[in-house]
Amino acid sequence: MVDQKLRKTLAGQAHRIKPFLVIADAAVRESHLEAIRSQFTTHELIKVRILGESKDTIDAAAREICEATGCDLIARTGHMAVLFLAKD
């Protein structure tokens, strides 16, 4: 679990990062999860653009990604989700 101080620091660092993946219709597929897991092998902090009709569908897709990959949702602003997975 990420504490508030680290969350704030990571959210600031995320401003420089471009999203590497776009998920259409907030439909998270296994291929998306594989790409995210692969990205986490080289990066701790990533951005994903989730296109959806409402905030609730975007939030649900972000939660699904976090549950499937074990990462933390640092921030979700609009269609952008910032995800963090600490390297061991």
Can you tag this structure with a few keywords?
globular, 4-stranded mixed beta sheet, Translation Initiation Factor IF3, alpha+beta, 88 residues
Description of the structure:
It is built from three helices and four strands. The chain has about 90 residues and is of the alpha+beta class. Strands 1-2-4-3 form a four-stranded mixed beta sheet, sandwiched between helices. It is globular, with a radius of gyration of 12 Å. The protein starts with a helix and ends with a strand.
Overall shape: it is globular
Q: What is the fold named in CATH at topology level?
A: Translation Initiation Factor IF3
> What is the level-2 CATH architecture name?
2-Layer Sandwich
Strand-pairing-aware structural class: alpha+beta
Distance between the termini: 14 Å
Give the C-level CATH assignment.
Answer: Alpha Beta
Q: How many separate domains make up the residues?
A: 1
Largest sheet, if any? 4 strands, mixed
| Average pLDDT, all residues | 95
Going across the major beta sheet, what is the strand order?
Answer: 1-2-4-3
CATH homologous superfamily identity: YhbY-like
Residue runs with pLDDT of under 50 for 5 or more positions: none
